[in-house]
Design goal:
InterPro entries: AAA+_ATPase (IPR003593), ABC_transporter-like_ATP-bd (IPR003439), ABC_transporter-like_CS (IPR017871), ABC_transporter_ATP-binding (IPR050763), P-loop_NTPase (IPR027417). This protein is α/β, with parallel strands linked by helices. The chain has 10 helices and 14 strands. Bound molecules: adenosine-5'-triphosphate. Adenosine-5'-triphosphate binds at residues 14, 16, 18, 20, 38, 40-46.
Length: 314
């Protein structure tokens, strides 16, 4: 099956030699919402800009709706709408003209009814005759979305759509994203807010150091969230796990002074009672016990941290 966006071994080395993308391969299906998570400087904006044809990759290929973003630039570009991270609007222009003009840039015929629809949906209709500079930051962000939607793109990129916006606008944005998906629009967003990825994405990709570390269905990740960890601090240190405990999902840590037991909260039996009995039978005494929920944030931090270490070691 061919995807709406096909990214094949994309690499980017900026002038000056910095390698921002180290071979990213990813297919995004029509109507999917993909959230790209990653720390600052991970390469998220570079990847989005490459798909939008704003950054030329050093290697690999990107196709949008089957059109190569380099060799078939025009066709690919009209399919894409981009809501950038930075507000890049003309301060003296009126809202409605800004959005109309944007549609025109893509060679689409003037369609006032469509522009009205977009402005109403984004609660901008009352402000249509205001100059951009008179708007609040949140309103300017809405204008950026209106601009990106003005030519009816099939793929919408949102680069940090809710950075610095208030809670109400964030919820509004999420609702708009849902509606667009219902229209069959494919949505790719970058975010620093794990909560945002949890709320709206179908799939979550984690990018760090120019590499895609993981792409997984959100529901599968959520199942991992269902896992809890029991941290058992022992009175004595162990050099290795005793044979009798081999069938438990246990890790030895803190130089053998603690055991971490991972269990599924959804399971009928957690196995905790059996584990405690097995510890006692082994003659091990427990100093303290804590439980903690493994969150998407933990998974994310572990992933990014471990890769960082590998790179340092290389
Ligand atoms: N035009 C450029 N020339 C040289 N280096 C660049 C250029 N643009 C970006 N970079 C570098 O490439 C790396 C990736 O940047 P990018 O903006 O893609 O990261 P990001 O994941 O979007 O980060 P953030 O979350 O901070 O927006 C960074 O180290 C950045 O300094």
């Amino acid at each position: 099956m061919t995807g709406m966006v096909e990214i094949d071994d994309v690499r980017k080395i900026y002038d000056g030699g910095f390698e921002a993308l180290k071979g990213v391969t990813l297919t995004i299906e029509k109507g999917e919402i993909l959230a790209l998570l990653g720390p600052n400087g991970a390469g998220k904006t570079t990847l989005i800009s490459t798909i939008c044809g704003l950054v030329t990759p050093t290697g690999g290929h990107v196709r949008v709706g089957g059109h190569d973003v380099i060799t078939d630039y025009r066709a690919a570009r009209t399919m894409v709408g981009l809501v950038p991270q930075e507000i890049n609007l003309e301060p003296f222009e009126k809202v409605i003209n800004t959005v109309r003009y944007s549609r025109g840039l893509f060679g689409k015929p003037r369609d006032d009814a469509r522009i009205e629809q977009i402005l109403r949906r984004l609660s901008l209709w009352d402000k249509r005759n205001s100059a951009i500079r008179e708007l609040s930051g949140g309103m300017k962000r809405r204008v950026l979305i209106a601009k990106a939607l003005s030519h009816d793109p099939r793929v919408l990129f949102l680069d940090e759509p809710t950075a610095g916006v208030d809670v109400e606008l964030r919820r509004d944005m999420w609702e708009i994203v849902e509606e667009l998906r219902a229209d069959g629009v494919t949505i790719i967003l970058t975010t620093h807010y794990i909560e945002e990825a949890e709320a709206i994405a179908d799939r979550i990709g984690v990018i760090s150091g120019g590499q895609l570390l993981l792409v997984e269905e959100k529901d599968a990740l959520m199942q991992r969230l269902g896992q809890k960890q029991l941290c058992i601090e022992l009175q004595q240190s162990l050099s290795e796990l005793p044979e009798a405990l081999a069938d438990f999902d246990l890790d030895l840590c803190d130089d053998g002074a603690s055991l971490v037991y991972t269990y599924d909260t959804a399971a009928e039996r957690t196995g905790i009672a059996r584990l405690i009995a097995a510890l006692t039978a082994e003659g091990l005494s427990v100093r303290d016990i804590q439980t903690r929920q493994k969150s998407l944030e933990d998974i994310f931090v572990d992933l990014v941290h471990n890769t960082g270490n590998k790179e340092d070691a290389a």
